[in-house]
Specification:
The structure is a homodimer of 335-residue chains. Chain A is of the alpha/beta class and 335 residues long. Chain A has eleven helices and 17 strands. In chain A, strands 6-5-4-7-10-16-17 form a seven-stranded mixed beta sheet, with helices on both faces. In chain A, strands 11-8-9-15 form a four-stranded mixed beta sheet, covered by helices on one side. In chain A, strands 1-2-3 form a three-stranded antiparallel beta sheet.
Chain lengths: 335, 335
């Protein structure tokens, strides 16, 4: 059911031992591809947000182990490089998790060719698992998305954020036969909705409309939004979900309007080590993101710039996962 | 108590029969003044938001009647011009109200000089009343703003939006002795909060912090917001209030957090001819405001760009007016 206008934000050449990424900083203006040949290239691409999205960073990290092996002379050297790699985006747990999973699979191998083969095999597994999960999340959503639904979403949750067809975005793709339309919030301050989600929706030929973040509540009313679906960066065991700043207030507005509010995410997003959203650290980003106003900088201004907020479970109708649609009470038993 | 760092966004020269405005599109970067010599100049300045803010549009509209008289050959012509003028910003009632008040005062005069004198007299009255009302709105708010309050606001409601020291902004000014701090929302797409309110707050030396529009709900929680105060462009007789897009969803979030939500406006903002917010026309603005993304234009994208939304009376704690603080039920009797 998914559109064939696929976007491939990442690929790996085994022969040349290099990652090719779609440099997301130039989207939607230009589709610039960039080759990452060294760990230093990979770290630079991650830090500069040329590649982003927690699941996609996992896939990037797994292929990067091949590059690190190629660049290393021994395991000591390899582990140093992987440490640097993992530190390049400390909040994205997927990056470290994926690199470690590939690293552990290397076991006692000591032939460089065989190490590369093994690392490549596991990286492909991780990539393919991510693709599968994305697809299954989309399929699970078919029971809650009906014909002619208008859907509201925030931030970016598609090909550009995952190793597959996305989380919330996969729900749109797998319901394209139902004449749906999607309203995408701009997602200030970095405009991932305006820049990336609108680009993805249009590539997939899904009817799409951009709105200001402030227009979410009135759009629910005037455009008769039937369902709100967002991704999540981390879900606590009680169901509280961290996601892009703004998610909390659209969840409140959904409740006010009696519109179902769903989080779409793989079960790997659930963190059973934490009890509630109070334990999820919320990253505050650089003031410059807000204090560059129409191109001019005002560093003397004060601002508060949290990158995420936490939506309490009481506002969340359900969690669309690769294991089906869960409610908050099912998280501990099913995940 | 008000700051002496006055900003004068409008003045009228009777001799030259022209309005001089501070062109708000260039703030805070540059203070550019612009002369409006014809009704077409005035309409252009209003439509392009060079001059904006419901009460300031009222003052502009009243001086504009002088320009319209100067430009007309008879009352038929004059009324046509005033119709065009009123239509340039349909949501804000003040523009039409002020122009009509001046128009009605002209009575049976038929000498152009006398017409101009009379119009100028009434326009000055309206301007001066607005100054008085602003002051009184601020004074009325002293009963609801306590020591060390953190206040959230949206858009711009100060000198740049009124003929005096503002509506919501006047409440900040008249409580400067109470160690208050104000969180200003950016107010996409035109950034009146980031550009104008931060500029005014800093000019007035009030502690100020800029937040993304999406951060309002989490700011209420994390920064312990005590009260939300916004302006309004039109209040229906049942208390429903139209204001800048985003006001509705922060009112919903205020209710969720149990934070008092006040509208600060002169009683001229109340439109007793309409029963509810359903009857307030909501202007949709040019798609380009949203579809210019990081400097590039995407006219092929679809967007929904309402400039205002309507907050239902049930979400509004009270109305801070020059006649004191009203609740929705008092509107019909007191206004």
């Amino acid at each position: 059911m998914a559109s064939d206008s696929l976007i491939s934000p990442i690929s790996f050449s085994k022969e040349a031992c290099l990652i090719t990424i779609l440099d997301q900083r130039f989207l939607p203006q230009k589709e610039v591809y960039r080759e990452l040949k060294s760990i230093s290239d990979v770290i630079d691409a991650i830090k500069s947000l040329a590649v982003r999205g927690a699941p996609l960073l996992g896939v990037t990290g797994s292929y990067a182990v091949c590059i690190a092996i190629n660049e290393s002379s021994d395991f000591y050297h390899l582990d140093k490089l992987l440490e640097l790699l993992s530190a390049s985006r400390p909040t994205a747990v997927n990056l470290k998790w994926a690199a470690q999973r590939v690293r552990k699979s290397l076991g006692t191998i000591w032939n460089k060719e065989k190490l590369l083969s093994q690392a490549f095999k596991i990286a492909c597994e991780i990539h393919s698992e991510d693709e599968q999960m994305c697809r299954q999340i989309g399929l699970a959503s078919r029971s809650v998305i009906k014909d002619n639904f208008s859907i509201l979403t925030i931030c970016n949750t598609g090909y550009l954020a995952t190793g597959g067809q996305g989380s919330a975005f996969s729900c749109f793709l797998e319901n394209m036969d139902k004449n749906i339309q999607v309203f995408a919030m701009e997602t200030r301050p970095l405009l991932q909705g305006a820049r990336l989600t609108m680009y993805e929706l249009r590539k997939a030929k899904i009817a799409s409309h951009l709105i200001a973040d402030s227009a979410a509540a009135v759009t629910m009313l005037k455009k008769k939004i039937n369902i709100v679906i967002t991704g999540s960066d981390r879900v606590a065991s009680n169901g509280d979900a961290a996601n892009k700043i703004g998610t909390f207030q659209i969840a409140i507005a959904s409740k006010y309007h009696n519109i179902p509010f769903y989080i779409a995410c793989p079960t790997s997003t659930f963190d059973l080590h934490i009890n509630s959203g109070n334990d999820i650290p919320v990253e505050e980003r650089h003031p410059e993101e807000l204090l560059t106003i129409l191109g001019n900088k005002y560093p003397e201004y004060s601002c508060y710039n949290p990158a995420f907020d936490v939506t309490p479970a009481e506002l969340i109708t359900g969690y669309i996962t690769e294991k089906g649609i869960l409610n908050a009470k099912q998280i501990k038993s099913i995940v």
